[in-house]
Amino acid sequence: MKKTKKKPDAAALNSVLVRRPIQRCFPIFIFPTFVAFMIGFLYPFLKGIYLSFCTFTTPRDAQFIGFSNYVKAFGDASFVHAFGFTALFTVVSVVAINVFAFAIAYLLTQNIAGANLFRTVFFMPNLIGGIVLGYIWSMIFDGVLRYYDTYLLAKTSYGFWGLLILMCWQQIGYMMIIYIAGLQGIPEDMMEAAKIDGANKWQSLWRITIPNVMPSVTICVFLTLTNSFKLFDQNLALTGGMPTAFQEGGEIINTTEMLALNIYKTFYTGANTRGMAQAKAVMFFILVAVFALAQLKATRTKEVQQ
Question: Global pTM?
Answer without folding.
Answer: 0.85
